[in-house]
Design goal:
Helix content: under 10%
Number of strands: 20
Radius of gyration: 18 Å
Bound molecules: 6-O-phosphono-beta-D-tagatofuranose
Largest sheet: 8 strands, antiparallel
Length: 280
């Protein structure tokens, strides 16, 4: 790998690429095409990674930004019985292209799906990471086949908030949401603060929300989504997951731009889902 700001590395038993640029540092694991770390210079780590994450390729990595594709949530219908959140986060990816400049670095990755899996899915996926003092993740899904294909997906970002008790998410006031825990439709009253397990799908195309924590304020922008997912497993939920460190729920919040209601990608159609993370 012969780039000015990128070196090949490893994390656990997995291959990664580490980026060290005057404006930021970052690490992307090739297993899952998963951004694991992003730290703009003069700022700390923006993402949360469980210190009990499994780093041997036997299961998706707990933290950073898992890519849920070509379905979000439990596998339903023809995919029943398959892994939650689709295939992309559990396969090896490859670097397709890198563009470096004094201002930014763009890295495009693609999953190494088998021929059989590619045929089954019927869509192609590329993930474009646009790094500068901010980071934008773009999922580009294409239908190069002759039949329409369903797609649901999420940019499943785990944010480092240091202290969940001193954290608010604004921008979703008055928004309808489905509470995955109580299985009820509700409406958000005021800003979001988390005092218990939370697993909510906000039905919104809102282009921007703000995550305000003891560490910093993050502007989280997106496009191509019709949902924003907010998740914290809280204490018992964290304890129930071996790869989620027991106290980790106090330091993280997931805020995910997502398509949770099946898109239909027509032949020849391209869909873009993005999330951009900027320090305020
Ligand atoms: O982030 C929302 C969610 O769908 C939650 O329901 C929870 O399952 C979370 O994803 C983590 O899923 P995972 O398969 O990574 O354990």
């Amino acid at each position: 790998m012969n780039y000015k700001h990128i070196t090949a590395s490893t994390i656990g038993e997995l291959e990664s690429i580490r980026l060290n640029h005057p404006k930021f540092t970052a690490e992307v694991c090739l297993f899952g095409g998963q951004l694991l770390s992003f730290a703009p210079k003069a700022h700390g780590e923006v993402l949360w990674l469980s210190n009990t994450a499994i780093l041997d390729g036997s299961k998706p990595i707990r933290g950073g930004v898992p890519i849920c594709w070509p379905w979000f949530g439990p596998a339903l219908g023809v995919n029943a019985g398959k892994a939650q959140h689709g295939y992309a986060r559990a396969v090896d990816w490859r670097v397709e292209s890198v563009i470096e400049s004094p201002e930014k670095v763009e890295v495009v990755l693609a999953p190494n799906f088998s021929e059989q899996l590619s045929k089954e899915i019927g869509l192609t996926l590329k993930a474009r990471f646009l790094f500068s003092e901010s980071v934008e993740i773009q999922l580009v899904s294409e239908n190069n086949g002759s039949a329409s294909r369903p797609l649901s997906q999420a940019i499943h970002s785990y944010f480092n908030v240091a202290d969940i008790d001193n954290t608010q998410l604004t921008g979703l006031e008055g928004t309808d949401y489905f509470d995955q825990l109580t299985r009820e439709n509700k409406k958000q009253q005021g800003e979001i603060s988390i005092e218990q397990a939370c697993d909510r799908i906000y039905y919104t195309k809102t282009a921007e929300v703000e995550l305000i924590s003891a560490l910093r304020s993050l502007k989280i922008e997106g496009c191509g989504h019709e949902s924003i997912v907010v998740w914290n497993p809280w204490q018992q939920g964290a304890k129930n997951m071996a790869d989620f460190d027991d106290t980790g729920f106090k330091q993280m919040l997931c805020v995910e731009m997502a398509n949770t209601r099946d898109l239909v990608i027509a032949p020849g159609e391209t869909h873009l889902l993005s999330q951009k993370i900027s320090i305020q």
